[in-house]
Amino acid sequence: MERVTWDSVLLGLDETLSFCRALELGKHVDSSRFLQHRTVLLRLMGALASGGPEMARAVFAGDPMASFLALTEAVELGGILPFLKACKPETVRRKLLEVLQGPAQVTAEDQNTNQGRNILFEFNVAAKLCDAKLSPQLGDHPDVSCSVDGREIFIECKRPLTLEGAAQAMGRAFRQLENDLKEAPAGARGAVAFSVSRLLNPGNQILSYTDEIAGKEALSRRIGEVSSFLGSRGLTPGPGIVGILWLVITPAVDRRTGLLTCTQFMNVEPICELGSTDERLSARLYEGLRFMWDEKKSRDRS
Fold first, then answer.
1. Exposed site from 41, 117, 255, 279, fewest CB < 10 Å?
2. Of 66, 71, 74, 64, which Cα lies nearest the Cα of 108?
3. Is the pTM here over 0.85, yes or no?
4. What are the domain boundaries of the chain?
5. pLDDT at residue 163 tops 90
6. Which residue has the higher pLDDT, 108 or 80?
7. Is the Cβ–Cβ distance between 3 and 212 less than 8 Å?
8. How many other CB atoms are found less than 10 A from the CB of residue 211?
9. What pLDDT does 194 receive?
10. Least confident of 110-119, 179-188, 233-242, 252-261
């Protein structure tokens, strides 16, 4: 689990927007929802500075959806900067242009306007794989790919807004991976990266926990509930699909310290035969990502 303080969220947002400007995307930055998010962040941080956590939480509650989106989308955009810098500018410029599009409020989002947030999620997945040194590549079909022990893993990314939509999205991901794997190199496998942020938090909540371990356990338990629900819908992965990467981003507070953060958590669930080579491949993917989280926590403490 990674916890990012609100001032670090703002810093990361500003640095990534500056990177976008350097790619001659300035006019798109200026008209993007991220400048609105920045205004909300400044308001939240001003309340925190002047009145402490209680006032900050009161300001959050005054417009919870705007606060939720500002924190979660800003931490997501800020977190992808190291990956962006590792890519060729021409590779990421087109996709960043799309990321900057889209309405400020998710209530205004539909199939015609959700592309920006979808691509931001793909960037987020690729950035985490990059931090884990798993050589991610952005694409179209699949959305992202990486290399684990010399074998390609194709990853389809989905970010549903409702539980009903989640079942449909998972089914589409399985079908897309089945098609992609038919044309894949020998030994390639598939996985689904699945955002549950809106399923676990409709946008009006701050996750409250007593310590980091309790926070991880709470998020893991909630992800398990979503997994069980989808399992009950009769969704069956095709051959070669080895796992699901569950991701959640949510505003959070450590009750013991009063620390307000934006928290990211990832869980890797194998969905292949126990004891098989595919399960070992899924375990190696998990180990790489766990090492990435451990490295981040180590840097945060230093």
1. 255
2. 66
3. yes
4. 2-301
5. no
6. 80
7. yes
8. 12
9. 97
10. 110-119
Contacts with 208 (C-beta within 8 Å, 6 or more apart), sequence order: 252, 253, 255
- Nearest Cα neighbor of 184 from 164, 228, 154, 215 is 154
Cis peptide preceding 142, ω within 30 of 0: yes
Residue type, 251: P
Cα-Cα-Cα-Cα torsion 163, 166, 167, 170, nearest 10 degrees, comes to -160
Q: What is the SS3 assignment for 164-220?
A: HHHHHHHHHHHHHHHHHHHCCCCCCEEEEEEECHHHHCCCCCCEEECCHHHHHHHHH
pLDDT in tens, 223-247: 999 999 888 777 888 899 999 999 9
Four-residue CA torsion sign, 276, 281, 285, 291: positive
- Amino acid sitting at position 268: V
Q: Which residues are CB-contacts of 2 (< 8 A; sequence separation ≥ 6)?
A: 263, 264, 265, 293, 296, 297
- Number of residues in the chain: 302
Please, is 193 exposed, middle or buried when counting C-beta atoms within 10 Å of its C-beta (0-12, 13-18, 19+)? buried
How much is the mean pLDDT over the chain?
91
- Report helix, strand or coil for 263: strand
Pairwise CA distance, residues 17 & 126, whole Å: 18
Greatest Cα pair distance, the chain, in angstroms, is 59
Tell me which H or E stretch contains 142.
none
**Closest by alpha carbon to 207, among 254, 247, 267?**
254
Q: What pLDDT score does 298 carry? A: 45
133-160 burial: b if 16+ Cβ within 10 Å, else e: ebebebeeebbbbbebeebbbbbbbbbb
Q: Are 202 and 68 in contact (CB under 8 A)?
A: no
